[in-house]
Structures are given as C-alpha cells and as structure tokens.
Amino acid sequence: MSADGNAWGMCAANGCPLFGSLGGAPWYCFCHHGRPNSANDAITQCLRNAEAVVVDLVKGIRMDSINGERSETTAIALRELRNHPQARELAFNRESDGNARAWLQRLERHLIVATSEFGRQQGLSGIVPTAPVIGPTHALDHYSEVDR
Fold first, then answer.
1. Which of 31, 34, 41, 87 is deepest in the core (most CB within 10 A)?
2. How distant, in Å, are the alpha carbons of 96, 135, 136, 144, 146 from that of 141?
3. What is the reported pLDDT for 124?
4. Peptide bond preceding 26: is omega within 30 degrees of 0, i.e. cis?
5. At what angle do helices 40-48 and 52-67 cross, to 10 degrees?
6. Residue 130 clears pLDDT 80, i.e. is over it
7. Contact at 8 Å (CB) between 109 and 96?
8. How far apart are CA 27 and CA 3, in angstroms?
9. What is the pTM of this model?
C-alpha cells in the first residue's frame, strides 16, 4: 500500500482497477487523468462494471509484456471478451493491429471513449432562463436614516 491508501502502482482514484501511469504523485490511469475529481466514482464504476472484461484484458497484456509469457489472467479475459457487446470490434485483428502493442492502444482508446461522457459538463436542457433583475443596480448616494 502507498501512503494514500491505494495499492502500489494502481490509479490514485479510489477503487480504480487500472495501473496509474500518468501525472505523478498521485499517479492516475489514462481514464481518470485530466478529469475532474467529481467524475472519479462514475468512471471507476464504468470500468468495474460495464468494461470489466476489457480492463482485465488490458491489465493482462501489460503484465504479460513484463513477464514475457501469456498468463492465465489474459486467457480468461480473452475467453470472456466473447460476451462483450463489442466483442467483434475489440478482438485482435492481425491485419489492422499487426502486434499486441497496437491492439493494447486500441483497447485503451475504447476505455477512454467509454468513460469520456463522465467529467464533462453537460449543456443545460429544458431550463428556462430567468428574466433580468428589475430594481436598483447600485447603492444610493443618499442615506435618509443618517441625516446630519
């Protein structure tokens, strides 16, 4: 554990399952980096629920690149990727990806796009603007209660 309570090497956003690789003290993942803190929980929820298979696959590919061999984590994530709504688009394609690095970038881009709606101020919808204020716009020069 690091001083801020997160596991060493992980994103500083509370509960985020990705590795922290951007920023520096605290380190954030590519999905949380540059986003307001108010969006952290929504981004983390998306990563842990809707995109959990892709997150596991990204982590597996990164760990395999360090270890130099294919892990059980990656094998399980590849098997579960078949159940993802965008499984066909996310699967490795030798012609377009060419290698694991390009595939990893494409998977990470998918996660960024999946979480991009969080942390962005939404436009006002259905709110009627108020009328201008009627009345004095400055303090009066004369104060009757302080006559001298």
1. 31
2. 74, 16, 12, 10, 12
3. 46
4. yes
5. 80
6. no
7. no
8. 12
9. 0.70
Assigned token pair, 99: 């290698």
Query: Can you say whether the dihedral through the CA atoms of 5, 6, 7, 9 is positive or negative?
Result: negative
Degrees, nearest 5: CA angle 88-22-84: 15
Distance CA(144)–CA(148), nearest Å, equals 9
- In terms of residues, how long is the chain? 148
**How distant is the alpha carbon of residue 25 from its chain centre?**
18
Domains of the chain: which residue ranges? 40-114
Q: Could you tell me the maximum CA-CA distance found in the chain, to the nearest angstrom?
A: 92
Q: Which of 26, 27, 29 is nearest to 115 (CA)?
A: 29
Place of tokens 């965008």: 86
Q: Which amino acid is at 92?
A: F
Q: Per-residue pLDDT averaged across 114-132, rounded? A: 65
Average pLDDT of the chain? 80
Contact status, residue 81 vs residue 57, Cβ threshold 8 Å: yes
Tokens 């605290």 appear where? 26
For the residues 56-69, what does the mean pLDDT come to?
A: 83
Q: What is the pLDDT, as a whole number, of residue 142?
A: 58
